[in-house]
# Entry
Amino acid sequence: MRVIVTRPAAQAADWVLDLHGHGIDAVALPLIGIEAVGDAAPLVDAWRTLARRRLVVFVSPNATQHFFARRPEGFGWPRSVLAGSPGPGTTRALIELGVPAAQIVEPAPGAAQFDSESLWVQLQPRDWCDADVLIVRGDGGRDWLADTLRRHGAQVSHLSAYRRVAPQLDAAAQAVLRAALAEPATHLWFFSSSEAIDNLDALVPAGTDWQRARAVATHPRIAARARQSGFASVIEARPSPSAVVACIQSIRT
# Structure
């Protein structure tokens, strides 16, 4: 059985390496393209005013990496500012880019999901009245966390650090997709985004039958989207590498 990792290219490559390390045959098929925003000035301005914020939330590793790519010379992470992370991948990126671990707020290690709701569990005990909060993300996304912070008195703004675009499949990726369509029983789709499933539906011929295809999804919303697309066998797993590996190994046995 071959596992198809559908995350954006950089994260997909890391997941493939990790799965290989556990003896799992895996291949990257990025179904979300990531591009830098055309106008970097708002990112540079955000760095220059960063110290006035109480919290900056990064929705993903891509948001983190693209924001830090525009850091002006000589700027470090202010000691008074918290960095919000929805999960281990974003936390790892923040630490690698110089944010002290003590200033990162993230879901508890045993949280059922790594998402905005689990991050809010850790943020909620703090006083957010009149707090200046910035959420760094792609072009669009869920507003649940922003709305929740506003209800608790925070002043929240958004900043787009990158754009999500339709994937451009090279010859190798096209071959992976053809093989998965031809032999669904020997492939397992790994979905960590509903948008990846939307893009997959746009890539395959209309009326493609997913009844014999299997998938692992890292969130109930993503699992529901896969079932809506026609996947008959969808298993939910926590988005941690250990949980995903255990889930895949259970399927293989």
